[in-house]
Design a protein that fits this description.
204 residues; 8 helices; 11% strand; 47% helix; disordered N terminus; mainly alpha
Amino acid sequence: MATVATASASLSLPPLPYPENALEPVISARTLSFHHGRHHRSYFETLNKLVAGSELADLSLAEIVVEAAGEKGRVAVFNNAAQAWNHSFYWRCLKPRGGGEPPAVLKEKMEAAFGSVEGCKRELANCAATHFGSGWAWLVLEGSALKVIETSNAHTPLTQGLKPLLTIDVWEHAYYLDYQNKRADYVSALIDKLANWEFAAENL
């Protein structure tokens, strides 16, 4: 069976784009070690075992997500592929000394859709803080307009014809070691101090 070590690059755990301690004090090195090194790694390892020898094995991670979505016989494939993709995207949505003012192209779209940059941040924060159970809050592009959506469990905008710009992981393993049940505090700190608005603008 294929393993992470022998898989194609698209099905291998990507390294974090920064050191494990780079997001402190908002997200601790301990949380990143567990979240990336165990949870994220496990999705890739399981996915490689599930697709080994199948027609999916040569597809990119995003292609596997789309192909497996809604297929009754591929629920496990979808869950692990989507979680692998979502997490790979999530790490790039964060950066040390992030937050602040978004690039002009993104700022204009935020103002058009939400009235202001702060209005966009409030809607994204509320979506992430109030989502019931495990899942994700997303800033997406629908057509030419920005929109905030939530997805449960492993679900992703990739299967909805939407273009993801930025996401916040609200599975408990993303924040519980640092914030326990205070999800709203994690969300607020992430948006204010870690959000990589330059990455979001690039995704436009």
